[in-house]
Amino acid sequence: MLGTTELRAQFPHTTERTYFNVASNGPMPNRAYEVLNGSLSTSRHAMIGAQENVFESLTSISANGARIFGCSPDEVGFGFNTTFGINLAAFGLPLEAGDEVLLSDVDFPTNVYPWLELRNRGINVKFIKSINRCFSIDELRKAITKNTKCLSVSFVQFFNGYKSDLKAIGEICKANGMYFVVDAIQGAGVEPLRLNEWGVDIASAGAQKWLLSSQGTGLYFISKEMQSVIRPPWRSWLSIDWKCDWTNLNDYGRAYPKTARQFELGTYPVPIMLGMDESIKFLTEIGTENIQAHNHALLDRLITYLESNPAYTITSDLTPAARSGILTFTTTSGDIRSVFTHLQKMKIMIALREGSIRVSVHVFNNFDDIARLIEGLESAALS
Fold first, then answer.
1. SS3 label, residue 148
2. SS3 for 48?
3. Which residues of 361-376 are buried (b: 16+ CB within 10 A; e: fewer)?
4. Contact at 8 Å (CB) between 55 and 200?
5. How far apart are CA 274 and CA 61, in angstroms?
6. How far is CA 82 from the centre of its chain?
């Protein structure tokens, strides 16, 4: 099914360009677009009623999000982006003045700036030294002190695709009594996650990349244990289960549910949320393990070419456990931007990050796409 004509028909762009930039933005499948468009039509024609489908979709998002995160449905909620969950962690965890938070020195700003704000509350933020621009467990161990209370790290690094060993990191956090927070956006849905098994407390993933949804959508995870520990930095009336009965809204005695959804914020962006629900269903029908195998097989073909051509040098870590759906490489000549421009002119869409070309593959890509990329790289090397 993966990469087949039938599946690629869900993605109109496959007839227009060769797309390897899901790590920036993922294209929405037709079936999700149709749901989103249908919701907009409902609103346009004033056919808005009790909107039971909205809350049914939220339940579906939690259920399928649990399959993506490797947890139970009552540990998953709808968030607007990765930043939503990171802020929930940064400002909801019971951190006090003098406590210490550890971050990677090569992380995406989403997982940095919310934590830096805690300095204004007397909380120390310290960066862990990376090794070869990859997160280092050895350096993590060295960085921990008696004041260290929290670690926040990306599952997959955005600029080179390095996948951290969350299981090993979780064991270190547990042994040292630390909260464990994960930015999961660059791996959720395409690399298997076992957040419960790995001791993660809070995780967050925007859905606009690998989850093939609109900007302004996402998932967050809060473990059952953490739900009673966190200090809610906000509250929303729609987090209460009103059972779609809007006739008694002055009943202020209703309790928040004992699930992750108690931290959601309403009113919801209904059309794009419904589209996200459909995209996540699409991905879970395929299965994360199947998607991972497909993506890695495509990149294997590209790796074979790059290793055979002295004009290019791979800058991703190729250790099997550290690989993801992202592969990066540069030129031995140092003129990577001209290669990038050449590929763009061929309608081969890639990204330029930290001095390397970044290739990110997904379910709609196939070996013909890889062959076209290799053709472009070959002609760029010869020009």
1. strand
2. coil
3. bbbbbbeebbebbbeb
4. no
5. 9
6. 7
pLDDT in tens, 321-369: 999 999 999 999 989 999 999 999 999 999 999 999 999 999 999 999 9
Closest CA to 327 of 289, 363, 300: 300
pTM: 0.96
Share of the chain above pLDDT 90, in %: 89
| Helix (H) or strand (E) segment spanning residue 352 | strand 351-353
Exposure of 6 by Cβ count < 10 A (0-12 exposed, 13-18 middle, 19+ buried)? exposed
242-276 pLDDT tens trace: 888 888 889 899 999 999 999 999 889 999 999 99
Q: Which residues have CB under 8 Å from 131's CB, separation 6+?
A: 138, 139
Asked if 341 and 182 count as a contact pair (C-beta separation under 8 A), the reply is no
d(CA 140, CA 173): 10
